[in-house]
Amino acid sequence: MTPPPPAPPLSPGPVPPGSHTPADLLITGCTALTHRPDGEIVFVEDAVIVVRDGVIASVTAAADVAEAAHRPEAPEHIDGRGALALPGLINCHTHTPMAALRGIAEDVPAHTWFNDWIWPIESNLTERTVGLGARLACAEMIRGGVTTFADHYFAMDTVADVAEESGLRAILGQTHFTSQGPQGRAASLDFALRRRGTAGGRVTTSLAPHAPYTVDDTDLAATAALAREHGLLVHIHAAENREQTANSLARHGRTPIEVLERAGLLDVDLLIAHATGLDPARDLPALRRAGGRVAVASAPRGYLKFGWDTTPVRALREAGIPVGLATDGAASNNTLDVWESMTLTALVQKHAENDPTWLTARQALDHATLQSARAVGLGPEIGSLAEGLRADIILVDLSGPHTQPVHDLAATLVHSARSGDVRTTIVDGKVLMRDRELLTLDVPGTVRELGELLPGLVDRSHGGRVQEYEG
User: Theoretical Cys-Cys bridge with 211: which of 76, 92, 133, 237, CB 3.0 to 4.6 Å?
Assistant: First the structure.
């Protein structure tokens, strides 16, 4: 990803007399997680967060405001006493409609999971089941403090409609395979051009070739050319495990990352899902040559389930590659809990590196905020509570027995807090959940309707599948 501009100052300073400009939303009394221009995390006690027109106007310590009367009036005021305000979490890679397949295939290797279960079932998908799965996923993410998600799936117009309905921010890509012929790539482009900037600007789009083993070199090169022509992000699975990398070397003499480089995809803004099978000697130099246009999304829970290695976060960080946090789809991860991904990232990285000093809690929070925003191409817009950025804010209650006492606030957030501690979720200044009550989506109705359709959705008796997994 192209590096974002320096973050705005910690706060604009005291509000001067005469600046009593009305606001849309005022949050007071909370502790706010903010970033200095160098990215260092700073917690501001007794903070006042002012939101106007969906944008953060200021984040100021109450003590810095000369007089309370100088605070702007707002039609909506949230008393944040006892809560911690964070930038909304970002799910950098998921497949929201797969919430309908949660738990459908457990304790099996990846090739069985794909060929015997998921791809046969996905041949039964309808726009209705896609919409219901996406609606369930969006409700889960709102309740878990996720305000932005990057999706990669079929029937993406339906997902875009659900994203708009839910109030979430989304980066959406229509999946395509070479087996679909040129029309697959054309449909991905058509969706990206039609829907980007919709939902009041909350929906941005990407091209979404599935993976180097399902999209051939010609198709990948054509995708890169389209991304370059239209200024689009490309979102793709690559080097998902060591077996894929070994198979790619055997078939093509190149790793999946080298296949992407040869196709020109490392020369455009690129989001790579997983990258657990990187060949450090061959792939890290290629990623460095990309000049900051490539990022990686890491979903550690799924790697643990499939028995894969994990994303080499330390090596990627040292190479200047942003690593954002993700969940993948609920069919493989079972949850869309980015909070859990943050905790697992910190723990798994310590184990993988055999180093308890890595990854620190503050580094994990960095990946959950600024790096995730950069990974999905929205670094200048989200990922921090700062003047001029979109008002994507969550309020977290740390009063529970599992988070008390608080000796180190960063460590408490990463290792003790849970997604269920999120009390309020706000996107573009609009409250989507208040005190754990969802305000935009009907979960009971969604669950009821989806339950009626499940028998037809999971039927595999037809013997078909959308694709063949070869790794």
Answer: 237
* CA distance readout (Å), 277 to 9, 241, 470: 39, 4, 15
Non-local CB neighbours of 309 within 8 Å, separated by 6+ positions? 241, 242, 276, 277, 303, 352
Cα–Cα distance, 219 to 75 (Å, whole number):
52
- Looking at residue 70, its pLDDT comes to 55
Rounded alpha-carbon distances, angstroms, from residue 299 to 4, 64, 396: 23, 40, 23
Select from 183, 142, 193, 136 the least CA-distant residue to 159: 136
- Residue 417 is given by DSSP the state -
Predicted confidence (pLDDT) per residue in 133-165, tens digit: 999 999 999 999 999 999 999 999 999 999 999
Determine the Cα–Cα distance for residues 260 and 250; give it in Å rounded to an integer. 16
Between strands 294-298 and 55-61, the pairing is unpaired
Cβ atoms of residues 174 and 188 within 8 Å? yes
For 244-284, the pLDDT digits (tens) are 999 999 999 999 999 999 999 999 999 999 999 999 999 99
Answer for the pair 85, 413: CB distance below 8 angstroms, yes or no. no
Q: List 395's β-bridge partners, or say none.
A: 85, 424
Phi-psi label, residue 46: left if phi above 0, alpha if psi -120 to 50, beta otherwise: left
DSSP letter, residue 294:
E
Residue type for position 179: S
- Rounded to an integer, what distance in angstroms lies between the CA atom of residue 443 and that of residue 430? 19
- Are 323 and 317 in contact, with CB atoms under 8 Å apart? yes
Q: Render the burial of 335-356: b for 16+ CB within 10 Å, e for the rest.
A: bbbbbbbbbbbbebbeebbeee
Residues 337/309, Cβ–Cβ less than 8 Å:
no
Count CB neighbours of 138 within 10 A. Answer: 29
The answer to whether residue 239 scores a pLDDT higher than 90 is: yes
Token readout for 58 is 């200021």
d(CA 265, CA 244): 18
CA angle 201-191-457, nearest 5°?
A: 110
Pairwise CA distance, residues 322 & 302, whole Å = 20
Q: Which tokens sit at 358?
A: 């890595």
Q: Are the beta carbons of 258 and 251 closer than 8 angstroms? A: no
The pLDDT, as a whole number, for residue 12 is 35
What are residue 6's phi and psi, to 5 degrees?
-55, 145
Give the residue from 266, 360, 379, 243 showing the smallest Cα distance to 313: 360
Q: pLDDT band at residue 73, thresholds of 50, 70 and 90? A: confident
**CA-wise closest residue to 313 among 297, 291, 290:** 297
